Amino acid sequence: MTHVTGTLVLAGTPIGDIGDAPPRLAAELETADIVAAEDTRRLRGLTRALGVHTTGRVVSYFEGNESARTPELVEALVGGARVLLVTDAGMPSVSDPGYRLVAAAVEQDIKVTAVPGPSAVLTALALSGLPVDRFCFEGFLPRKAGERLGRLREVEKERRTLVYFEAPHRLDDTLAAMAEVFGAERRAAVCRELTKTYEEVKRGGLADLAEWAKDGVRGEITVVVEGAPEAAPAELDAEELVRRVRVREEAGERRKEAIAAVAAEAGLPKREVFDAVVAAKNAAATGPGKGKGLS
Description:
By secondary structure, the chain is of the alpha/beta class. It has eleven helices and ten strands.
């Protein structure tokens, strides 16, 4: 007989406006055997706002007790319980408690599912006005200035749009550090109090945003930063262009295709590469450098 285990449900909760709560959230809150909440007081406020009552056992699950409480919850899951995990706002595991429990449940082959909900990361991206086709989420930066600069330098050349969470009292220092590493004019958006009454999105260059933030900023903050610009092709002299064409020819490419490929690599007109090849061929045939060009 196969033993039936329980299910771990990760539930997204509103990041501001209670009206954004997914409809399934209420049903899961009412029927879960155990509700693990980052803050049980915030959970009570959420259930009151939704007009629901939890019938299962409510336990706290936050950064300080994740390691100790995870085995207890896994044991309940193995025993067949339906465990609902909620954090104060947004999706569990995304810079919030949850990863340890998910990893432990997966290791025990326990089903893990989700109630999709609001996300500060995706909401900020959509409102930023910056490219969203490719992005990476960097979470919170280190508090110490040196460590923060080191983390930023790791992604200095990252082409994808970057998303960060930050505390309001550190925002001006963080933006100044970003301006130092990424460049003063790199575009960014500071998204504050998303979906709440005083929602604000401030867009501009990093240096200007850092100056703006010096006056003090309140609320929940998400920062979206434009990815690094594509590096300009290195300028190649005629000798290097000819060398690259020769390498391609020796690998079996026809000269016409080799010239086109090298021109594309260098960001140059094909005619410029062609002229360099012809000049090298003429020089090899008539001058003291004979044998170094193209035949």
